[in-house]
Amino acid sequence: MSNEVIQASPQTIAQIKKFYTKEAVTRNAPGVVFAAKTANASITVYKSGKVLFQGAGSGIEARRWGATTTPSTSTKSSKGDLLPDHLGSLSVIGSDETGTGDFFGPVTVAACFVPAHQIELVQELGVKDSKQLTDDYMRKIAPDLQQTLIHSVLTLPNDKYNDIQEKGYSQGKIKALLHNQALKHVLRKMDNEKPDYIVIDQFAERKTYYKYLQDEPIIITERVLLATKAEGLHVAVAAASIIARVAFLEEMDRLSHQAGRTLPKGAGPKVDEIAAKMIMSYGEDALRSFTKKHFANTEKAKKLLNKLRNT
Ligand code: MG
Predict the structure, then answer these.
(1) Residue 274 Cα to ligand 1 middle (Å)
(2) Among 8, 130, 199, 290, who pairs with 12 as Cys (CB 3.0-4.6 Å)?
(3) Exposed, middle or buried: residue 117 (CB in 10 Å: 0-12, 13-18, 19+)?
């Protein structure tokens, strides 16, 4: 059941009592000075001045009495937090990751701060919902974003990824650690400035996210919102997403150069084929520094290679 609480002045409480006179009910609970029941909400006024609104109509009833003391909520992402109104126009640190579904290449995470007064500038620089942008376009605009915005971008090299993955870290935990670290860096660079909110493009339930971080010395929790498809909610997340993507692409360039062949993105059949060739050229162990070795692609590539060798 949804509910809302407001702190009301004596004047407001007098108005509330008058307004709901006809719907008044008797409640003998401790501290209750007035109670009412409408068709879709229960209203309880406490001696302390707190007014509790319960039921489906609680939001509407609470707003009648200036429910702005609790963050007013309008949008809810599919599985994420309730989001404040006008989130898109506030000063926000956004964070996002990429590379998690790619066999070759690193996981990268970026966080960046876009203060309210720079939102237009960031849009001017070409930031849109990054899901609609091509890699080439993102490569073009990322340098300007990096120059303009306080940001942090982390690239987790593949051998390090494989080390911790083998120690039992799930991909979710790896992502959470990187997000937390990137946010920490950005907050540190901001000195005394505070964001209105921190928006993380959501990859885990809130509880799970913080469970992943439980052993961290510093855990960023204040004003954190988790929301899916957050690139569309604030340009800070879209910008972070672009910066993370370009860091991924640059590391892929470097790895491709090192491998002597273009390493494909994703985890499809082309990836298996190139992985088989990599094993042929450099041995299976080389996958440690080029791939996320625990993906099914490793086994598929080995099978492919056996087939090639047996024909
Ligand atoms: Mg994301």
Answers:
(1) 26
(2) 8
(3) exposed
Cα 247 to Cα 105, 152, 251: the distances in Å are: 10, 11, 6
**Cα(282) to centroid(ligand 1), Å:** 33
74-78, 212-216, 283-287 — which is least confidently predicted? 74-78
**Span from the CA of 238 to the centroid of ligand 1 (angstroms):** 10
CA of 201 to the centre of ligand 1 (A): 5
202 Cα to the center of ligand 1, angstroms: 6
Spatial distance between the Cα atoms of 95 and 91, rounded to a whole number of angstroms? 13
The length of the chain in residues reads 311
Q: How far does the centroid of ligand 1 lie from the alpha carbon of residue 271, in Å? A: 22
What is the pLDDT at residue 311? 76
Residues 221-238 have a mean pLDDT of 93
For residue 215, report the phi and psi dihedrals to the nearest 5 degrees.
-95, 5
- Helices and strands (H, E) in the chain, number of each type: 10, 12
Query: Which of helix, strand or coil describes residue 51?
Result: strand
Q: How far is the CA of 273 from the centre of ligand 1 (A)?
A: 27
**What is the whole-number distance in angstroms between the Cα of residue 131 and the centre of ligand 1?**
10
CA-to-CA distance for 162 and 156, rounded, in angstroms? 10
> With the CA atoms of 290, 293, 297 and 300 taken in that order, what torsion angle do they form, in degrees rounded to the nearest 10?
110
CA of 168 to the centre of ligand 1 (A): 22
* φ, ψ dihedrals at 206, nearest 5°: -50, -45
Please report where in the chains the tokens 């791939």 appear, as a residue.
291
Give the max Cα distance, the chain: 89
